[in-house]
Amino acid sequence: KNVEAKKDEYVIASDTAFAPFEFQNDENEYIGIDVDLMKRAAELQDFNITFNHIGFSGAVQAVEGNQADGMIAGMSITDEREESFDFSDSYFESGIQLAVQEGNDDDISSYEDLDGKTVGAKVGTESADFLDEHEDEYGYNVKLYDDADQLYEAVSVDAINALMDDYPVIGYSVAQGQALETPIERESGGEYGFAVKKGQNPELLEMFNEGLKEMQRTGEYDQIISDYIDDSG
Ligand code: GLN
């Protein structure tokens, strides 16, 4: 072990509903890939954590405002975020995608078809940035939601025509029975990293990286992923 914890306990901020990365089980406990990876890294590297599930943009603000020591929330490593955060090694390769209610995709097969329609995303996310960037080009309206429950509900009751989110999260909700279709190829990129505020808690970042490497070496990493994502189809 190369680094020692410098705090008795590190506060880790996270999202509220971002299955399969963090979500509540039937006992209202938070589980998921991020939760398991973080907890196991803490065990392996001998540091204490307490999770604070406050939503994605809430987590970003908590780390920026020193109310949390780090965040793990399916957070994509982007150039812009690297100006205010230090990221761990990437632990998952993701990407964003458009989804529509099943049966409603007949007239949507490209971004151009979104002209005059309303597309939702979660506030502060890569998907929200993508939608903002292309709003004029494709002529849709953007509607932002604080959490995924509201966003997915909105598309299922036709309050919005489509949503944009990370593809494994859409995939998980489809696997859970939500009637969604993804008529447009996903946008590639979006490596997830654990993040600390720039220049702060370097030992925490290093301990996460060391723990992650060990989990990858022992196969525990693959086991955690396959606990939540069925790769067979
Ligand atoms: N990966 C996306 C981002 O970093 C979404 C993360 C999330 O919603 N928890 O913006």
Walk me through the structure:
With 233 residues, this protein is of the alpha/beta class. The chain has two domains: 10-93 and 190-228, Periplasmic binding protein-like II (D-Maltodextrin-Binding Protein, domain 2), CATH 3.40.190; 96-181, Periplasmic binding protein-like II (D-Maltodextrin-Binding Protein, domain 2, 3-Layer(aba) Sandwich), CATH 3.40.190.10. Helix content is 34%, strand content 21%. It is built from seven helices and 14 strands. The protein has helices at residues 33-45, 56-64, 126-138, 148-156, 167-175, 202-218, 220-228, and strands at residues 10-14, 23-24, 30-31, 49-53, 70-71, 85-87, 92-93, 96-101, 118-122, 141-145, 162-166, 180-181, 191-192, 195-197. Helix 1 (33-45) crosses helix 6 (202-218). The longest helix is centred in the last third of the chain and has 17 residues, at 202-218. Residues 15, 18, 56, 73-76, 94, 122, 125-126, 166, 190 line the site of glutamine.
Any descriptors?
single chain; 233 residues; alpha/beta; D-Maltodextrin-Binding Protein, domain 2; 2 domains; five-stranded mixed beta sheet; three-stranded parallel beta sheet; 34% helix; 21% strand; globular; binds glutamine
